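cache lookup: miss for this entity combination. No prior model stored, computing from scratch. Input as submitted by user K.M.:
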Amino acid sequence: MPIDITAVTLAELRYVVALSDQRHFGRAAKSCRVTQPTLSAAIKKFETTLRVTLFERSSKHVAVTPLGAQIVEEARRVLDATDRIGDLAARGHRPLSGPLRLGVIPTLGPYLLPWLVPPLREAYPDLQLVLREVKTSVMVEELAHSQLDAGILALPIPARGMSSSPLFEEPFLFVGPSGHALGKKTSVKEGDLEGERVLLLDEGHCLRDQALSICNKVGATTDDRESDFRATSMETLRHMVGAGMGSTLLPALAVSDDEEARSHVTVRPFVAPQPGRRMVLAWRKTHPRAEDHALLAEFIRKHAPDVVKSTRNHATKK
Amino acid sequence: MPIDITAVTLAELRYVVALSDQRHFGRAAKSCRVTQPTLSAAIKKFETTLRVTLFERSSKHVAVTPLGAQIVEEARRVLDATDRIGDLAARGHRPLSGPLRLGVIPTLGPYLLPWLVPPLREAYPDLQLVLREVKTSVMVEELAHSQLDAGILALPIPARGMSSSPLFEEPFLFVGPSGHALGKKTSVKEGDLEGERVLLLDEGHCLRDQALSICNKVGATTDDRESDFRATSMETLRHMVGAGMGSTLLPALAVSDDEEARSHVTVRPFVAPQPGRRMVLAWRKTHPRAEDHALLAEFIRKHAPDVVKSTRNHATKK
DNA sequence: TAAAAATACTCCATAGGTATTTTAT
DNA sequence: ATAAAATACCTATGGAGTATTTTTA
């Protein structure tokens, strides 16, 4: 009959290690908080199931056999690893600790994360943040399939079964080629876009959909079907505008103070009703650590840069 | 209430790992040879005792949480180490496998081991032989205190509670300075030692005691109290004889074929009754792997060099 | 509605305890 | 003679089973 390792117990391993350390059944038992007969029986059972002698005993001496020493060594490894499991679990209870996979849409990530991550790391050093920059369409997939724990994206969330907490509203800015007619005004209004050729991002970016709906409302041209007028990234979009191919709308965080000098473009804010997007932190309704996400949302609201207006409404909805 | 890692079971860890692999309670249960409710209950108990969610489940999807993934990783380590314990134990059953701490007296070790160890390693590759060269007095101590598993020494064994198996008889040879009077004969007899100054080893070597008793019997001089005439090693003894300080008795294996040329000494065998020593393999009566030692003794008898007469009597005695 | 996980319950194997005996120095 | 390990015996916990219900895609 082969050895059935299934039958051994973590307690037995503890006893074996203790006896190897103490070389005395009574003391070993005490160190394990059990009685001597209990420990004796456990050691004996262990030796019987493995059909091996770990200890030579007399009433005066307990000695570890060489094979016993090797087994004790492995037993220590077992116990160390189980202790680490305990540590992991214990840490799991503290808020915002342990691994957290956070998605951010690419039209926000590069501009928000520099403000967010350093204070987050400082405030929650045990948080093991794994960031993924993914388009909204991919993000909701990954959220739903438990590949992400939470994500930062813009309303509306194109998925069901999600909870979310509002973060801030990010206004859009008008960005046209240098010397554009609208540059003469200090601010523009949505209606001014009428007749403009507005360049858009590729499919899958929520920013595209948001800009598109504004354009449709006010009657701007979008050349939707011609891929020459679509950009795969906001950086490309900037260059296209700088090259005079048209205008566009950019979210406020993505526009730097020296944008006009850097990209040879004209940047103008909108007057009310200001177009923009409402960012939220979203996660599966069923996520086991939803409190963590509420906490994270609160933290993001507090640390978002001033250009965006933090939403004071903390409700979690949908 | 803190986490009680004591309450987790190896079985639970197996289930956790299986579920993480299979992502399906039914299949995971089957792979563990238990029913689905059993596995469900175990996972739940595990999560409850650690107060952590390892898996997000719905009737369609099972997903591992990030913390769960870390815990699964440690659980794998635990199970790997337990498996290794099983392997160690399994190997422990095969004869002459695993660690074996063997003591050899210094007046034999260097001359026997070159004959013994290579074939032993070949015949029993799983044997992890640890050799210690120790004087008889130390060896019996270490045998008694389970610091050695077995030892090769000469009869009589100065300790109780030992079992032994005879190995071979090793004759003593007369060794005197070059040009010694006894060199004129092809062989000598014990009585020829009368009046000789015989050099001895230090205390603790059994060879000393054996030579001494012969000297006392035949009336040889031993200058017992003068440490100038005692050697700490057989190598020193050779040099002292070569330097003309006296004669000595050396065990046959310690004398090489070119001894006379190499050490400027005269070597002569004894005629019957030939003095010598009876070597045995000894171990604690209580040693759990006595069969291994009997096997080892048999092996040594078979592989001892021809100069010694292997004892055919295999009895284990005392 | 069908597959899958969770619940309800029953049972028995065993880990742990107390009291005592055996053993070896 | 005495300290220490082994044995005998008892109890209760909980791990594993079968049968069934609940859930959700």
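stored under new cache key. The radius of gyration of chain B is 31 Å.
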